[in-house]
C-alpha cells in the first residue's frame, strides 16, 4: 500500500512540474520576443552627429529622425567597409538599421549610400571652385573642395587640371548645408592624338591617324568640340590634317568620342552658369 501511494505521489509531482513548465515557456517566449524588436531601416542625409551623446540625426524626404547609436553599432562607408562614428559628418547619405523600443530609436548599423551623377562636364570655374555637369537635358553644379579626389583611367590619381569641358565623368558627392559638394571625380576616357584624315558630317564620324594607328570615332550626343578654349564648336570647324586630341570610350569596338580639341590649343576652363539644376 505504501508503495502504491509513493508511486502516485511521484507521478503527481511530475505532472505538476510539467504544468508549471508549460505555463512558464510561453511567458519566456513572450519576454524574448519583446526584448528583440524587428529591425527597420531609414535613409536620409546626415543633419548632425553628436559623438558625446551618441546620437545621429537624419533628414529624409519628408521628415527627420534622431537615432541613439548602440554600443555595438557598426559603420560602413563608400570608400571603406569598416569605419567609426568619427567618420560620420553632415551631408552624407546614410541608411540606418534600427529598432524602435517604445518610441526610442536605437541604431545597430549605419551604412553610407553613394550619391553619384554621370554626365559631360559643361564648365569648370577654378576661381569659384565649381564644376557644372550636364546629363540629358539637366545640369547640376558642384562645389569643388581642395580635397576633392580626381581618378583617371586605370585608377590613376589626377588633378582638376586633368578635367576639361566635354569630358565624360562620374561625380561622387555629398550634401553639406544642402550644397552639392564633389568628393571624387572619375574621368575614365582614353585619349588618342592624331591627324584628322576624314569627316562625315551626316553620320557624325571622323577618322584620325597617328604614326602607328588610324581610328574611326563616332560623336556622342554630348561631345564637346573645343574651339578657342570654348566647348561649343562643331565638326565643321575642324580643319583637314589638323592634329587633334580626342577623348573617347571603346564600347564593344565602337570608339565613342566625348571631347575633341586641337592639340596645339591650350584648353581653358570656361565658367558657364547652369540654366537648369537637378534636384538632389
Give an overview in words.
It contains 1 helix and 17 strands. It folds into 3 domains: 40-112, OB fold (Dihydrolipoamide Acetyltransferase, E2P); 116-187, OB fold (Dihydrolipoamide Acetyltransferase, E2P); 190-262, Copper binding periplasmic protein CusF (OB fold (Dihydrolipoamide Acetyltransferase, E2P), Beta Barrel). It is mainly beta and 280 residues long. A hairpin with a 2-residue loop joins strand 16 and strand 17 (254-262). The strands form 3 sheets. A 7-stranded mixed beta sheet has the order 8-7-6-11-12-9-10, with no helix packed on it. A 5-stranded mixed beta barrel has the order 1-2-3-5-4. Strands 13-14-15-17-16 form a 5-stranded mixed beta barrel. 12% of the residues lie in helices and 48% in strands. The protein has one helix spanning 2-35, and strands spanning 40-50, 55-59, 64-76, 93-101, 104-112, 116-125, 130-135, 138-143, 149-152, 157-158, 168-174, 181-187, 190-200, 205-209, 214-225, 243-251, 254-262.
